[in-house]
Amino acid sequence: MDIAPLGGRFGTFDGQLIVVGSTTGLIRAISASGAVVILNPDSPVFNSPETLVFVPLNLGAGGSDLEGLYSANWPPNVLKANANQFVGFKGDAIVMTEVGDQRISRLHWNGSAFETTVIGRSPNQAEEGFFLTPGMLNPGGSCAPQEQAAEHSSLCWPHCKDQGPRRQLADPRDGKTRILQRD
To answer: Mean of the pLDDT values across residues 148-172?
Structure first.
């Protein structure tokens, strides 16, 4: 499940929670008021869909080789697909299945209907996935891009200066207030 990005051209569903049923293959949009709409009633995703994530609008903007899609490739390792493989899919949903042909599909709003296109296959069983974006690599925003590419500082954030305001948010894991996000 993921939130359709605002400005992502996902029909009238931008900003809504989008989920996929692992047994039905139906993709649903859930609004803030709780209204549910099935987006693919006539074309369910087959073979046990496991992951639904949106291609971030800023994917690849940081220029780091670390940006891209990461997914558990069960059982042996982690699957990584580079950001450049998703350039034409920004704002679209990527759905990965875990059995059968382990397809990776793109769900795209063409202006009048949703289209599902198989864009690849996982070598093994895909389990959960996420896109690593510039904001995740550099959440404080105080590192220069060349620092990100340097030796072991590819993940720049441990080396960034403590700059900028932060927000204290309740940690969903235990409800305790922590500094979890910078503005």
So the answer is: 43
What backbone phi and psi angles, to 5 degrees, belong to 22? -70, -20
Residue 25 structural domain: 2-134
Dump strand ranges (E) for 23-152.
27-30, 36-38, 49-54, 68-74, 77-82, 93-97, 103-109, 114-121, 125-132
Strand partners for 72: 78, 127
Tens digits of residue pLDDT in 25-65: 999 999 999 999 999 998 888 888 989 999 999 999 989 99
Q: Which residue has the tokens 């198989």?
A: 118
Res 140: pLDDT: 64
* Residue that has been written with the tokens 């990461």 in this structure: 70
| CB distance 105 to 95 below 8 Å | yes
Instruction: Over range 150-176, report the average pLDDT.
Output: 45
Tell me, yes or no, whether 116 and 61 share the same domain.
yes
**Of 59, 50, 182, 36, which is closest to residue 129 (Cα–Cα)?**
50
Is 50 in contact with 96 (CB distance < 8 Å)? yes
pLDDT the model gives residue 170: 54
Question: Do 75 and 156 reside in the same domain of the chain?
Answer: no
Bridge partner residues of 27 (DSSP): 20
Please tell me the distance from the alpha carbon of residue 36 to that of residue 2, in angstroms, as a whole number: 15
Report the number of distinct structural domains present in the chain.
Answer: 2
